[in-house]
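re: ur question from earlier - yeah i can do the single chain one, its not a big deal. heres the input i used so u can compare w yours
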Amino acid sequence: MFVRNPDGKLNRDLSAQDLGQIGQLDEKALELWEQVVNHRRLSARSGLRVLIVARSLADLHDQDKVNKNAIAETMCFSSFDCGDAKEDFAS
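and the output i got, formated as tokens:
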């Protein structure tokens, strides 16, 4: 995280622009994130928080890229029912 992020920022301090440049979402993760945002009607701020937490989970799993599992796991930490998220976005 400290090597990848500009000026050694913490993931929580990354802007949307920073995430777009260095967040490294794979294609499937981006598709799932878009589904989550649309299905759950998340605000831009909430959608950004999902990406930040997913980036942190990828870091914890020592993964360079954020994959769809990190997005799904992030949704389990939110106030949403994880069971619903898995059923809605499983593929």
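Residues 35 and 82 are 15 Å apart (CA to CA). not sure if urs matches, ping me
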